[in-house]
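# step 3/5: fold
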Amino acid sequence: MRQQIGSGSSWEETVGYSRAVRVGNIIEVAGTTAMDGDTLIGKDDLYAQTKFIFQKIDKALQQLGNSLNDVVRTRMFVTNISNREMAGKAYGEFFAGIKPVTTLLEVKRLINEDLLIEIEATAIIP
């Protein structure tokens, strides 16, 4: 069984990807940014961008009948590792009781110079 959901981004059709894909009991959520359509949420604010991204990831999981409680792994890509505490603060608000494994990496830049973070998630459904 394969389920796919999109976010409505024009990139999904042009490039050929989905916001999230569920195969069996595994859900993979694509790299997610703080873009809401063509609008950037939280310009110059890593905390606000991170919070918005986890809300988007949660929404994608809910569309597949699941939630953040099923997340077992996240990968966070930041453009300035010095600001990691702000990403960590937002992360803790969503995952303090769930405690998935995570990776935090600094990257040179993301697809839009105003994006400060991009996050992927993996969920396993019991």
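# step 4/5: annotate
The chain is about 30% helix and 35% strand.
# step 5/5: archive (pending)
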